[in-house]
Amino acid sequence: MALLVFYGGYTLFGFSWKGYRIYTGQDKFSWPVLCEELASLLFIGFGFIAMYDLAVGQQTFKPLVWQIWLPAALAAAFLPLFVNTPKTEFSKQLIGQKGLAIGMVVAALLFSPVYVAAWLMAGF
Hints:
Elements: H1 2-24, H2 31-56, H3 63-78, H4 86-110, H5 112-122
């Protein structure tokens, strides 16, 4: 349950921080980048349901939902290393290709408990 609180706080802080930076004009990026970031946030946030269900011993969705979500989440985590998206193009301008790769791997490792929870809820 502590992990769920940590990830929830992390996501809420990230969303609030991003909103603040957009509102104050500190972030200069296009709408496709913003849409991709928000979609990513909502998508990984959906994975928190698996963590919550695992923590409290319930099952909100059928295993098929997690069987579909998990490969999609893993693809969303690693595919941008090989395919250019608006968000990765923007990130490359800021931190370069190597920094982008390192950041994506670190993010995937930080969110690995979400993937494990989805794996367990999928019943693989």
